[in-house]
Amino acid sequence: MARRKSKDSPGPYLLDVRLLRERIPSPEAYPFCLPAFRNLETMEFHPKVTFFVGENGAGKSTLLEALAVSCDLNAEGGSRNFNFATRASHSPLYQSLRLAKTFRRPADSYFLRAESFFNVATEIERLDQEPAGGAKIISAYGGQSLHEQSHGESFFALFKNRFRGNGLYLMDEPEAALSPKRQLEFLVLLHDFCERGSQFVIATHSPIIMAYPDARIYVFGTGGICAVPYKETEHYLVTHGFLSNPRRSLSTLLGEDSHAV
User: Fold this and answer.
1) Dihedral sign (CA 155, 159, 160, 161)
2) 81: alpha, beta or left, given left = phi > 0 and alpha = psi -120 to 50?
3) CA distance 5 to 246
4) What is the CA radius of gyration of the chain?
5) What is the 3-state secondary structure (H, E, C) of the chain?
């Protein structure tokens, strides 16, 4: 059962982000050469959920990572208490951004990066093995080692145990380890946290997750970044078209006679 909305839910926390062109070292350098950033001026965040969608390499994760660093979160993931780098590879984009925030401060914050969540789990185990440590960090994730769970189970251990509400949560491809059914369960959790004053910025390829109704969708494309209604996203159109008639879609894709399928 979803929890009721807190009467003192303080969100949102982020209002918008501006790209300061005077701070760009070179317009031809990565990532400023990407179409997403060539014409970017100000992007407004939805008070509950903002989605970044688009093809791989379009700049979604790069901007999300820069937002995380600008919010004092670890570039590889985790909360403000994490300070490790398996490989220092984040871009200089954060140095050219200006975040507009409300006067409210989130009670909780976290950056989930699907591709490096293994590193976060490893860092938790390393910190918990230090002799001078106090309470075990893993207790905040449900008490079971994240490495001893499936990828999807470890994600849900994070969502259900570590996230506290009234928070700012940045998430890069949370669907990476989730089945379609689990993605629907994630939507329930997402809604619960939004009702309790949380704000999310999520980079995703999932047409299920981006269907969350109280959200703004930004598409990163060859023409830059633009806000698009859910049913006009390529993700919805391609998925809907395929599922409406899989045989015809496969026939077209595979170059077969539709009557022989």
Assistant:
1) positive
2) alpha
3) 41
4) 20
5) CCCCCCCCCCCCCEEEEEECHHHCCCCCCCCCCCHHHHCCCEEECCCCEEEEEECCCCCHHHHHHHHHHHCCCCCCCECCCCCCCCCCCCCHHHHHEEEEECCCCCCEEEEEEHHHHHHHHHHHHHHHCCCCCCCCHHHHHCCCCHHHCCHHHHHHHHHHHHCCCCEEEEEECHHHHCCHHHHHHHHHHHHHHHHCCCEEEEECCCCCHHHCCCEEEEEEECCEEEECCHHHCHHHHHHHHHHHCHHHHHHHHHCCCHHHC
* More confident: 206 or 123: 206
User: Cα 174 vs. chain centroid, distance in angstroms?
Assistant: 6
pLDDT range class, residue 3, cuts 50, 70, 90: very low
Q: What is the pLDDT of residue 84?
A: 66
- Token couple for 40: 């970017």
At 131, give phi and psi (nearest 5°). -65, -30
Q: Where are the domains of the chain?
A: 14-228, 234-261
State the Cα angle at 190 between 75 and 90, rounded to 5°: 10
> Residues 68, 72, 73, CA angle at the centre, nearest 5°?
50
CA proximity to 64, closest of 14, 123, 10: 14
| CATH domain 14-228 topology | Rossmann fold (3.40.50)
pTM above 0.85, yes or no: yes
Pair of tokens at residue 103: 């006067």
Amino acid at 246: P
